[in-house]
Amino acid sequence: MSKFSERLKQLRTEKKMTQQALADLVGVNRVTYTNWENGKREPELDKVVELATELNSTVDYLLGNSDINYLDITENELKNLSKEEAQILSDEMKKNLFAIFDIGKDKFNMTDEEMEMMKVRVIKKFMHDMDEKEKNDASNP
Hints:
Elements: H1 3-14, H2 19-26, H3 30-37, H4 45-54, H5 59-63, H6 75-79, H7 83-107, H8 112-139
Helix pairs in contact: 2-3
């Protein structure tokens, strides 16, 4: 069994999801999903990104290219990262985000201009959500 298949099953079971539930979330039938988990077939890259997103994982961790799932870090662990660890996390998140953008661009046949607009929207939404979280944290000590 490949690292991908092992991690796919591990992350799914940690989330207490059935194969059918995860298959439904990524838009495939259960047999297709089961073949991925059993190592009989491999998904297209866009499905790998969807799986990683649904399982709160980086693509690199899911594929076995990294042994650390940087998206599975608690807020407390995040606050205690060293400068070097924070830089690694930042780099991993950028790499993941750019992979998602590249796949979206191809899948939806977007122009470079449309992609740049999408990136700006995503960044604005992220910043807005962070501001809201900080406001909520400040009002709920």
